[in-house]
């Protein structure tokens, strides 16, 4: 994994791709090592999500406020939610929401319904935020999570929408950074 650092709109930033949602312990280990080395004030997690809430449409942005995993929950982004929503352009629909974190892609209504029985209030399903939230609480950095809705539980739909979703979340993060 390569940490890419530089300036983005005059602010020092670093970026790393963490494709470890299906391996939570590896995700935790890599991020903990990164935090120990770089000592960031904040980490912004940009990613995709499956919609659970009926008011969410494909392409909508959810600013995650809490993540739930195996009967536990962790708050996320308390300090960043307002910044992200204020920076959202009128061409994107964004709202706060909460997630269920899973370690496998949900590809169908049966899997989704099992997760929602465990946490019926979930707006989205994602694969990293609970683990990142626990690390943020334990290691003392701010965490923000910006998720673009790509699907309702279909891998083909998800894969077809990852690129535009990634562009939207990065665009929104740049707008957040410009406001600071």
Counted by DSSP, the helix tally is 5
Question: What is the H-and-E element order?
Answer: EEHEEEHEHEHEH
Q: What is the share of helical residues?
A: 25-40%
Structural class: alpha/beta
Which strands sit side by side, in order, in the main sheet?
3-7-6-4-8
Give the integer mean of the pLDDT values.
Answer: 90
Number of strands: 8
Shape: globular
Strand content: 25-35%
The separation of the N and C termini measures 28 Å
Using the CA coordinates, give the radius of gyration.
15 Å
Main sheet makeup: 5 strands, mixed, barrel
Q: Low-confidence segments, ≥5 residues, pLDDT <50?
A: none
What do these coordinates show?
This protein is an alpha/beta fold and 180 residues long. It has 5 helices and 8 strands. It has helices spanning 24-38, 81-87, 109-118, 129-139, 155-179; strands at residues 4-8, 11-15, 42-51, 61-69, 72-75, 94-101, 124-126, 142-151. The strands form 2 sheets. Strands 3-7-6-4-8 form a 5-stranded mixed barrel, surrounded by 4 helices. Strand 1 and strand 2 form a beta hairpin. Helix 1 (24-38) packs parallel to helix 4 and helix 2 (81-87) packs across helix 5 (155-179). The radius of gyration is 15 Å and the shape is globular. The model has no long low-confidence stretch (mean pLDDT 90).
Give a nutshell description of this structure.
The chain is of the alpha/beta class. It contains 5 helices and 8 strands; from the N terminus they run E-E-H-E-E-E-H-E-H-E-H-E-H.
Question: What is the fold's blueprint, element by element?
Answer:
Layout (H helix, E strand, L loop, with lengths): L3 E5 L2 E5 L8 H15 L3 E10 L9 E9 L2 E4 L5 H7 L6 E8 L7 H10 L5 E3 L2 H11 L2 E10 L3 H25 L1
Parallel strand pairs: 3-8, 4-6, 6-7
Antiparallel strand pairs: 1-2, 3-7, 4-5, 4-8
Helix pairs in contact: 1-4, 2-5
């Amino acid at each position: 994994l390569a940490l890419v650092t530089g300036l983005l709109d005059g602010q020092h930033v670093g970026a790393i791709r963490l494709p470890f949602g299906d391996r939570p312990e590896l995700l935790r280990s890599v991020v903990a090592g990164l935090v120990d080395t770089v000592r960031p004030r904040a980490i912004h997690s940009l990613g995709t999500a499956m919609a659970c809430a009926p008011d969410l449409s494909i392409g909508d942005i959810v600013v995650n406020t809490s993540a739930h995993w195996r009967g536990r929950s962790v708050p996320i982004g308390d300090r960043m939610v307002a910044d992200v929503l204020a920076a959202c352009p009128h061409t994107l629909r964004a709202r706060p929401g909460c997630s269920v974190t899973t370690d496998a892609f949900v590809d169908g209504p049966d899997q989704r319904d099992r997760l929602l029985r465990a946490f019926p209030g979930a707006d989205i399903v994602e694969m990293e935020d609970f683990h990142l939230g626990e690390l943020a609480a334990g290691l003392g950095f701010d965490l923000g999570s910006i998720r673009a809705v790509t699907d309702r539980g279909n891998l083909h739909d998800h894969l077809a929408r990852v690129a535009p979703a990634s562009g939207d979340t990065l665009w929104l993060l740049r707008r957040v950074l410009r406001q600071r």
